[in-house]
Amino acid sequence: MSPVPTSPARSPLARLAHAAHFAARAHKDQQRKGIDAEPYVNHCLEVCELVLIAAEPGDVEVAIAALLHDTVEDVGVTRADLVAEFGERVAELVMHVTDDKTLCKHDRKRLQIEHAPHLPRDARLIKISDKTSNLRALVRTPPVGWGPERLADYVVWAAAVVEACGPTDAVLEALFREAHAEATRAHPG
C-alpha cells in the first residue's frame, strides 16, 4: 500500500480519519467470519470506538492503533509500513497485539494469555476492546462452520485473555463482562 504523505501539522482528527481510511483499504478484501459476512473494517471501527469510550482512553495514537490492530496479522502490512505512515508508537502498539501467524493456533492463543499481563496499558485497552467486539460478533452473527464446542471454547478463552490483562479500565471491563455474559448464554460450554 503506498503511503499517503503525512504532515507534522496534521490534526489528531485528520490522523484518525487517515487511519480509518488506511484500515478500510487494507481490509478491503476481508469479511468477518460470521454468517452476515460483514466487511472486516467494521470490526476495526468497533474496536476503535470501544477504546475511545474507555474511562481513560489514552491519546489519538491508541485509537489509531485500534483501527490498525489487525493489519500486520491479517493483510500483510509491515511494522515498517506502520512506522512510515503513523509513527513508531502506533506501530509498537499494533505489534503488541499482533499474533505471530507462523505459530499454530494453540500456541498463539496460549501466548496471548501469557503476554497479556506484560502489555502496556494502551495495548491492553486494544486487547480488551478486540475481545469485546469478537464476543459481540459471536452472538450477533456466529462464524460459519463453528460448532457449539468451538464457540464455547472461544468465549472461555477470550475471558482468560481479558482476565490476564488485569485491572485496566473499569468501563471497558464492564462492557467485556456484558458481552461475555451474553456470549455465555448464547454459547454455553
> Major sheet, described briefly?
none
- The average pLDDT score comes to 94
Count of runs of 4 or more consecutive helical residues: 10
End-to-end separation: 42 Å
Task: Round the Cα radius of gyration to an integer and report it.
Answer: 16 Å
Assembly type of the chains comes to single chain
**Helix percent band:** 55-70%
Q: What does the overall shape look like? A: globular
**Beta fraction:** under 5%
Order of helices and strands: HHHHHHHHHH
State the secondary-structure class: mainly alpha
Q: Give the beta-strand count.
A: 0
Low-confidence stretches: none
Give a short summary of the structure.
By secondary structure, the chain is mainly alpha-helical. The chain contains ten helices and no strands.
Structural description of this entry:
The structure is a single chain. The chain has about 190 residues and is mainly alpha-helical. The protein is about 65% helix and about 0% strand. Helix 7 runs parallel beside helix 9. The longest helix is centred in the C-terminal third of the chain and has 20 residues, at about 120-140. It starts with 11 loop residues before the first helix and ends with a helix. The model has no long low-confidence stretch (mean pLDDT about 95).
